């Protein structure tokens, strides 16, 4: 059995929920491993991101977002409104804020802007959708049908950043 680890770097837009179509990159990674029959796990290591399997939609809004994604965002905005102030949700509590302030002093790439942690909505959305998808590989191809696409979703709308999507391909 062959086991391969790969990762993708994905940039979020920081202005709205970011849906990144990673289907072709996942397909290329699977083909590069040479695995003909097995599994591919596509996973986010970030607590405000998800990997979803959804139908590709040709129609887009003015921002370039697929209409099915826009519809999903509208429903989620009603269920889990965006956190704009510290009183919108219980998260983050005082201890977590202190932890994050200390983290920003230790890590140069971590922002020292407390408004960036007003993202309880992103954490809750990611919890609902989960962090990964498992795909079946048959004859070197993911079994995702003709309209099934794989999207890496960054639910956090507070700042632009680079995200990592991990892949594990295993099989024969």
UniProtKB/TrEMBL annotation:
Show the InterPro entries listed in the entry.
Answer: UPF0047_YjbQ-like (IPR001602), YjbQ-like_sf (IPR035917)
Q: Which Gene3D superfamilies match?
A: YjbQ-like
Q: Write down the PANTHER family for this protein, in alphabetical order.
A: UNCHARACTERIZED PROTEIN YJBQ-RELATED, UPF0047 PROTEIN C4A8.02C
Q: Its family? A: Belongs to the UPF0047 family.
Name by which UniProt lists this protein: YjbQ family protein
What is the species of this protein?
Answer: Tetragenococcus solitarius
